[in-house]
# Entry
Amino acid sequence: MPPSDDGIQNIDRLIHEPSRLTIMMHLYVVESADFQFLQHQTGMTPGNLSSHLRKLEDAGYVEVTKEFMDRTPHTALKLTKKGREAFKQYRKSVKKIIDKLPE
Amino acid sequence: MTKQNTLREIEKKTYISYHQDGLIDIIVGLYALTFGLGIIVDQLLDFNFAVIMPGIIVVILLPLWLYAKRKITMPRIGYVNIGTKGSNKLFALFLGLAVAGLGVFFLFTMVTFESGRPEWIETILFQYGMIWIGLGAAVIGSMFAYTMGLKRLHGYGLLTLALFVVGYFLSFPFQYLLLLIGSIIIASGVALLIQFINRYPVQKGASENAAQ
# Structure
């Protein structure tokens, strides 16, 4: 039986997916990081990371900026304001649901 | 995987990853080493080199550290901007240390120049000076270790304390102790750097993959 009024339906499914949640968590604790650092921290493959980043970028949660550092192309990734708010909201919702569970 | 990680742990892991290259150790070691050398040069040339040394070292070592980060660390594990939260914590620590340093300096000056000061104060301050410096290094090391999540800084602080206590009882000159401590920390940093370079070979173009 699907739950109805306990808030589960309101959880952001885009963030709830484990790989994307990992990405969001890692970007939440920093100002920005590049693709390589994120891959290194999350342990995801380049293809997998790329595809999840694209989904988050399409939702407006992640901002991808291409720039040059020491004449090398560099991709900077950061959570947008919308992304940070969405993640905060996600945390609140999950906490609320967990807190409602009996011991 | 994700559910077990708290944000705080991720933050700590990020900090540790960024400083696992041993560069910060090499810089701290170089600082101690050059400071010790400065005192020796002072004694040899009768020039107040040690007084201006800390400033000169910061001006030279800080850009050197940033350059090494860009050339060695970034091509291997990528770039991260820890951001204001991390910087604020470090800034608060530096500020706290600066205020504490000024307080100690003020107290020290008052006690030193006050006439008729009790003899025990003089004994505690001057006779055990090296132990105080060692204790200071241990406390500062622990504060940085806690703020940056780098446990090895506790070790460096404790090592400094231990060497200064031993140095005090063996009457080992302060500047040579600095050379010894600096060399040990540099050696540890170099070992970490070699380990880091071997563990993370340069990945060409890895930073360009995002959302292509």
Observations:
- The first strand of chain A starts at residue 32 and ends at 34.
- Chain A has one domain: 11-88.
